[in-house]
Structures are given as structure tokens and as C-alpha cells.
Design a protein that fits this description.
By secondary structure, the chain is α/β, with parallel strands linked by helices. The chain folds into 2 domains: about 150 residues, VC0802-like, CATH 3.30.2130; about 180 residues, 3-Layer(aba) Sandwich (Rossmann fold), CATH 3.40.50.150. The protein is about 30% helix and about 30% strand. It contains 9 helices and 15 strands. Helix 4 links the parallel strand 5 and strand 6. The chain is elongated.
């Protein structure tokens, strides 16, 4: 296994930690806790190979970058900078958690050591970006950036940018975090029985999933199709009707995950129907179509468990979505043993 590091973005720390753990697990790795891997401002992960770190950066929403140590344990940042400089090329040096325009003594010294060994400094378009992080014993470690999270891409998928819009929809970063909680890997089959604008299925499809959806409102189905098409995505099947009874083609082997944000509140369009009872009835209907150990990733206002046996709750994280709106992101696994 290879040791790497992820720098969280600072948004919704609890959800960021849960998203990272689920995403790393889906890629065959794990989060590493405790020394000697602990460094300030980053989270250690163990993955099968370096390419997985690049894949991880492409999956995450609530993070900034993925990094690798330049040298083994116990090698000071200054010494590691000298070694890296001997390979030539240009570089930029920063400290984890500091604004890009600020520099401290360790950053300046590492830069001088890099130049002295044969490299050059380029703060605009360097061939490599190095970051300094401090360990629990104040020893500084030099990390090289393997890949950065494409944060602007999430802004390009916000509701005002899409052809079909509704006032209540999860922001793309939170929708991606929920999709990561579902443990999605390329080729996975994912169902959203409360389709809405298609925000969750869009993030699942961008992770490589085959997506299926249901909504009782034909306008929402048409709108979700328009949003997916705008993003260059396709659904395997979308159905209009009551998710408790509607006929929808089930993929061979069942669905790998249910990923959903059920309607709640006065603007939910439920016609006075009790939302918790409806949600449980729908999930009871579709849990039988899940593969063994299938996952439910659901966003709800809070309250009692969204489902009962055979579901086992693994994650429950409250997140403030808007100024007056808080939601809980929950992950359940369907236990068949």
C-alpha cells in the first residue's frame, strides 16, 4: 500500500471526513489514523497504487488536493527539497493551510534548497507543486501535489447554470459527497426513487455509475432529463409514477445503491401525504431490489432512523445546507446475513 495525504477544504468537516472514508474504501484503500502518518492539516490514506490518488482527487468534493510524501519518514523537509531539486524542473512551495501568497521560513528555505540543487522556482506554472506540513513532533514533511480537486467544475453545475431549475436542490458539492457515501464505482447501478432535478444522479453518473430514477411528477422527469443532457450525461432509465408501485427495469443482479434526497416540507408536492411514511414505504419497496450489502445514501431533515432492518446505519452527519436549512447525510448498508 502507498501512503498519501488529502487536504480537506474546511467545509462541513464531519461530512468531508465521511466522504473521504467512503471514497477511499470504494477505491480499495483506507484512511490511516494516528502516528507516524499524522500531519497537520491533511488526512493520511493508504491506497493500492499511486494512480488511485489521482482517481481519488477526481471523486472528492470537500477537499482541495491529494499529495504524496517526497521522502520517507524522518527525512526533514529541507533535505527532501534538496533531493527533489536534483531532478530539475520548476516548482512552487507552499505550507498547508496558508494563503497562496504567504510564505514562512521553512517555505523560503525549502525553495532555496531546491534551487541550490539545480531546480527553479515558478509560482505561476510550475512543473511540480510542493507543500510543507508539520507533524505532531513539529518535524516538517515535504509533500508533492499529485492532483488537485476540480472545485470550479462544481460551480458550473449549480442550479442557476442548469436548464431546469427548482429552488430546493442540493448544491453539487453536497450531492457529490452523498454520491461518494453510496460507495459508487464505475459501472455501479444506482437508483434515485425521488428524482427531483436529477442533481444526485448527475453526480453518480459523473462517477461512472449507470443511473435510474423515478418521480411522480412528469415535469421533474423531463427536467432531470434536460439537466443530465446539458451535462453530457444519460440515464439508463427514468420512470414517472408513484415509486411504491411504478414499474422500472431492474438491472441484472439488482441495484448497487439507492441514492436519494426525499421530498419534505410544504413545497414537497406530496399533496398532504406524510413524508416519513412515504419515504419508508418507497425504501421498503426498493431495498428488495438491491444487491447483497447494497448501500443507501440518503439526505433527510433529521429525526428517527430513515429505515429499519435489514438496514444498518453507518454514517449520520448533520450539515447546514442553507441559512435556514439543515440536513442529515446518512449511509446505511443492507445486511443480508
Amino acid at each position: 500500500m502507498i501512503l498519501g495525504y488529502v487536504e480537506p477544504s474546511g467545509e462541513s468537516p464531519g461530512l468531508a471526513a465521511a466522504e473521504l472514508a467512503a471514497a477511499v474504501e470504494a477505491l480499495g484503500g483506507r484512511v490511516v489514523v494516528g502516528e507516524p502518518a499524522a500531519l497537520e492539516g491533511v488526512v493520511a490514506v493508504a491506497v493500492p497504487q499511486r494512480s488511485v490518488l489521482v482517481d481519488l482527487a477526481s471523486r472528492l468534493a470537500l477537499a482541495r488536493r491529494v499529495l504524496l510524501p517526497v521522502a520517507g519518514p524522518g527525512v526533514p523537509a529541507l533535505q527532501a527539497a534538496v533531493r527533489a531539486g536534483r531532478d530539475g524542473g520548476s516548482a512552487a512551495f507552499r505550507r498547508i493551510g496558508r494563503p497562496s501568497g504567504s510564505a514562512d521560513r521553512a517555505v523560503r528555505e525549502a525553495g532555496r534548497a531546491f534551487v541550490g540543487a539545480g531546480g527553479s522556482i515558478d509560482l505561476e506554472e510550475p512543473s511540480r507543486r510542493f507543500w510543507i506540513a508539520e507533524g505532531p513532533d513539529t518535524a516538517e514533511t515535504l509533500l508533492v501535489e499529485v492532483a488537485s480537486v476540480d472545485r470550479p467544475s462544481f460551480g458550473a453545475r449549480t442550479m442557476p447554470r442548469l436548464p431546469f431549475q427548482r429552488p430546493v436542490s442540493l448544491p453539487p458539492r453536497l450531492a457529490r459527497a452523498a454520491a461518494n457515501l453510496a460507495g459508487i464505482v464505475p459501472g455501479a447501478t444506482v437508483l434515485d426513487p425521488f428524482l427531483g432535478t436529477g442533481a444526485l444522479l448527475a453526480e453518480a453518473a459523473l462517477l461512472g455509475a449507470r443511473v435510474f430514477g423515478i418521480d411522480r411528477d412528469a415535469r421533474m422527469v423531463r427536467g432531470a432529463l434536460a439537466n443530465l443532457a446539458y451535462l453530457g450525461l444519460e440515464a439508463e432509465a427514468l420512470a414517472q409514477g408513484d415509486a411504491r408501485t411504478v414499474d422500472l427495469r431492474v438491472p441484472e443482479g439488482g441495484f448497487d445503491a439507492i441514492l436519494t434526497d426525499p421530498p419534505y416540507g410544504r413545497s414537497s408536492g406530496l399533496g398532504g401525504e406524510e413524508p416519513v411514511a412515504l419515504c419508508r414505504a418507497v425504501l421498503d419497496r426498493w431495498q428488495a431490489e438491491l444487491a447483497p450489502d447494497g448501500i443507501l445514501s440518503i439526505v433527510v431533515p433529521g429525526g428517527p432512523p430513515s429505515v429499519g432492518p435489514p438496514w444498518a446505519e453507518e454514517v449520520r452527519v448533520p450539515v447546514r445546507v442553507h441559512r435556514s436549512l439543515t440536513r442529515e447525510f446518512r449511509r446505511y448498508v443492507r445486511r443480508t446475513d
